[in-house]
Write a structure and sequence with these properties.
- This protein has seven helices and 18 strands.
- With 356 residues, the chain is of the alpha+beta class.
- Helix 1 crosses helix 3, helix 1 packs across helix 7 and helix 3 packs across helix 7.
- It is globular.
């Protein structure tokens, strides 16, 4: 199946299925001499790992990563870095009753129409299980970017309930299970999501990722614009249905003077008086914070009965049992961070190759 690789100078290829024996990835283009150990990757995988609260799927996976190649005596060698995570808590029997039914809102129908066969056990490659390898690759991308670039994500909306941006506090993100920077919103979300989960339903959310310390000059002016590459990376995350950079869709309601990010000199440095552009001008990073948001749809696997059709072409009704996230956007935060890291690492290496 094509389309399993992402990036050019920093290239990530993932493999494996939700209920297969393992998932993995190969990261090519990693510069030699970087300090890299499994613990450096594991810390980010643990942030995405399922089963850490009642608000996520109760599938229990350690997500213990193994480095198979590309590292010698704790340093990268410049050759492909291969990573592997074994699946240990599959319950394929949960899907036996719906193996001939298409889940509405899921990739079941389109996979079947494209390939004539599908892995009904958790969705196969369409499962968010695959994103663990994106998080692993993102950990390596952060090594490429160095400590001057800081990438942080937060959930800024759950269902119809958005945060109060005046109450934004990055320290709060690690203090609740929702990656929420607003303590009061996080408390309200807990009650809201408990009701959603008990009703056998699901809800969506909005994730925001901010990359600080990104140097000016990354990205290309035409087809490989940095914002276009970020949009592709974020839209490639399962359940993503929309991406915006900076002011995004809100820019359409602004007038030119309000939207333009005015500039001034601060000593010998250029400063910006606003950041509606989200840190990217003409497809190239400006040196400001890069700000991206993505909308995540509600989880498609729900207990609420839904009308569907069967593989045999008959009308049917479906209830999806098993262990599923009532709000998949929660565990999508570290995935979104990782994809931003991969794009920035790719363009940093491309910048070095072209501009020195």
């Amino acid at each position: 199946m094509p389309g399993n690789s992402f990036g050019q100078a920093f290239r990530v290829t993932t493999f494996g299925e939700s209920h297969g024996p393992a998932i993995g990835c190969v990261v090519d283009g990693v510069p030699p001499g970087l300090d890299l150990a499994e613990a450096d990757i594991q810390v980010f995988l643990d942030k995405r790992r399922p089963g850490q609260s009642r608000h996520t799927t109760q599938r229990q996976e350690a997500d213990a990563v193994r480095i198979l190649s590309g590292v010698f005596e704790g340093r990268t060698t410049g050759t492909p870095v291969a990573l592997l995570i074994e699946n240990t808590d599959q319950r394929s029997k949960d899907y036996g009753a719906i193996k001939d039914l298409f889940r509405p809102g899921h990739a079941d129908y389109t996979y079947f129409k494209k390939y004539g066969i599908r892995d009904y056990r958790g969705g196969g490659r369409a499962s968010a299980r695959e994103t663990a390898m994106r998080v692993a690759a993102g950990a390596i991308a952060r090594k490429v970017l160095g400590t001057d670039v800081v990438i942080r994500g937060a959930m800024v909306q759950m269902g119809p309930h958005a945060i109060d941006r005046a109450a934004w506090n990055w320290d709060q993100v690690a203090r609740n299970p929702f990656w929420c920077p607003d303590a009061q919103a996080a408390s309200a979300w807990e009650t809201y999501l408990d009701g959603i989960r008990k009703a056998g339903s699901s809800t969506g959310g909005v994730i925001e990722v901010v990359a600080e310390g990104v140097p000016a000059g990354l990205g290309e002016p035409l087809f490989d614009k940095l914002d276009a590459e970020l949009a592709k990376a974020l839209m490639g995350i399962p359940a993503a249905k929309g991406v915006e950079i900076g002011a995004g869709f809100a820019a359409a309601a602004l007038e030119g003077p309000d939207n333009a990010d005015e500039m001034r000199m601060d000593g010998d440095k250029v400063t910006f008086l606003a950041n509606n552009a989200g840190g990217i001008l003409g497809g190239i990073s400006s040196g400001q914070d890069i700000v991206a948001r993505l909308a995540i749809k509600p989880t498609s696997s729900i207990l609420t009965p839904r009308r569907t059709v069967s593989v045999q072409g008959t009308d049917a009704e479906i209830v999806t049992k098993g262990r599923h996230d009532p709000c998949v956007a929660i565990r999508g935060v570290p995935v979104a961070e990782a994809m931003v890291a991969c794009v920035l690492a790719d363009h940093l290496l491309r910048f070095r190759g072209q501009c020195g």
